[in-house]
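Q: What does the assembly look like in three dimensions?
Context provided by user:
Components: two
Sequences:
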Amino acid sequence: MAEPMRIRATMAGDVADVKVLMNHPMETGTRKDAKTGQLIPGHYITEVTATINGAAVLNADIGPAVSKNPFLGFKVKGAKAGDKVAVSWVDNKGDKNSTEATIG
Amino acid sequence: MNALRRNVLKSAAGASAVAVAVAAGLLKPTQALAAWNKSAFEAKNVGDALKGIGISGPSDSKDITIKAPDIAENGAVVPVEISSSIAGITGIAILAEKNAQPLVGNFGLAGGATGFISTRIKMGQTSLIRAVVSAGGKSYTSAKEVKVTIGGCGG
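A: Here is the predicted structure of the complete assembly.
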């Protein structure tokens, strides 16, 4: 969680285009440490949720096959410029992060 | 009771391992039995993965577009975009059929969220990328082959 999540949300017609970049190693648990030969334990985001003005729009279960530093794009019809989009995630170790942005 | 709770509670070893982990502060009680669908994500084939998320027999649909490279330069980061205009979409699942564990993500959509998900996934080898769209209580599917030169799952 070294860097905060980044969100960009812009309107295209009446659809909000939301792009999120999360900071996370997304270790599968099958990779070996090059120096020690030990398996690097699995460490990955398991759930991502997004709301617009507090109402749920996305509830995603993801696993270690999502690439490191997960990128997620989704679209919401009927959102408006000025609405608040909030995204949060939880990982398999119980770590979490969240951030908020205003739709531009 | 969901499958995960049942499985964890069923085995004495499972129950005590969870209890030890909770006592050691490694697992908070709600998270120990939280909603992550382990059986679906650890399923080793598409059928079991779909069953794990409550889907069986999705029908092929031409109304699902999968945008992904024909050849992935880097199997660790394959951009995949699923879009569909099927009415009333409530979920999109993405699977990489030949990954050791095919289910990549299950995206539940609500409110005004449209049938669109864009993300980047790991692929272990050349495989079909399959999208399964849930709408109106039914499920629909389409797939596209992505060739992978260097696999991206490590190990």
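Follow-up: The two ends of chain A are 26 Å apart (CA to CA).
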